[in-house]
Amino acid sequence: MEAQKFIDEKINEIKETVRDGKAISALSGGVDSSACTVLAHRAIGDNLKVVFIEDGLMRENEAQDVVKIFSDLGIEVRVVDAQKDFFSALKGITDPEEKRKAFRSQFYEVFKEEVLKSQATFLVQGTIAADVVETRGGVKTQHNILEQIGIDSQKGYGFRVVEPLKELYKHQVREVAGELGLPPKIYQRMPFPGPGLAARVVGEVTPEKVSMVRKATRIVEEELDSLKPFQAFAVLLNDRGTGLEERKRKFGNILVVRSVESKDAMTAEPTQVPWEILTKISQRITREIPDVVRVAYEITPKPPATIEYI
Length: 310
What we know:
Elements: H1 3-18, E1 23-26, H2 31-44, E2 48-54, H3 62-72, E3 77-81, H4 83-90, H5 96-118, E4 122-124, H6 129-136, E5 160-162, H7 170-179, H8 184-187, H9 207-223, E6 231-245, E7 248-261, E8 269-270, H10 275-288, E9 292-297
Parallel strand pairs: 1-2, 1-4, 2-3, 4-5, 7-9
Antiparallel strand pairs: 6-7, 7-8
Helix pairs in contact: 1-2, 1-7, 2-7, 4-5, 9-10
C-alpha cells in the first residue's frame, strides 16, 4: 500500500459521498478514529463535526490530550460527558459479551443525540479490517460494526456510515496516520479497546475498579515504553488474594499484566519482558495502588487467548 495514494483516493471518495452534506465523527484518540477524522476533515472541512464521548473508561487525561492534539491540527473537538450514563448501563453486568453489548447500546444512544444536534447525515467511523474479521468470525462483538445490530435499524439514527479504513490492518493505519501528519503520540500508541477499560475489568464494572485499572495500565505503559510492545496493559480479576501489610494479613485485589507482540492483532505472542522490569511493575502497582496485593504476568498467545480479556 502506498500511503499517500490511499489518502488521496479516500479524500476524494469522502468528498463524493458527503458532497454538501454534514458528517460527524466520534473521536476516541486512538490511531483508527484519529486517522479517519483527519481524512474526513481534509475532505469536507467544517462540514465535519467531531465529538469525543467521555465515557469514564478512557486512559488518564485522554479527553484533554485529544482536544489539544486536534486543536493544534486545526480541528475542533467537542467533549460530551456521559460517564454516569455508561456506568449506569454497565451496572450489574458480568458476562463479557453482555458488557460489550451494553457499552455499544449506550454509545449509540449518546451518539444519536449528537447526530440530532449536529444535523449530520453521515457518520465517519474508524472501522478497520480486524474489527470486521473478528466480529464476523464470532471472536467478539466490536461496538463499531453496525451490522451486528442491523444496519437497517440505524436509519432511525439519521446517518449513513462512511468507513475509509475498513480494508486496512493496524500497521497500515499507522502508516496512513503518519503520512497525514498526526503526531507519534497518536500513530505509535498502543491499541485501546472499543469498550475502554471496561474490557480490562473481569466481572462488574465500577468507577472504583476502573480507577485501579487506569492507574495500573499507566504504570505498565511507562515501564514497558523502552520495549515498544504492540500492546500492554493491566487487567483486574474478579478474584481476590491475601497479602501482607505491616505484618498483618490483608485481603485485596489481583491484577494481571499483559503485553504482546503483533503486526495486525489477528495473532499475538507474549512479550519476553526482562525480570527486572516485571519486578519494578509489580512493586509500583502494589505500592501506588494499595488495594492490589498480587500482580501476575500472563504469557498466553493469541490464539488460544484473545489479546483483551473481554
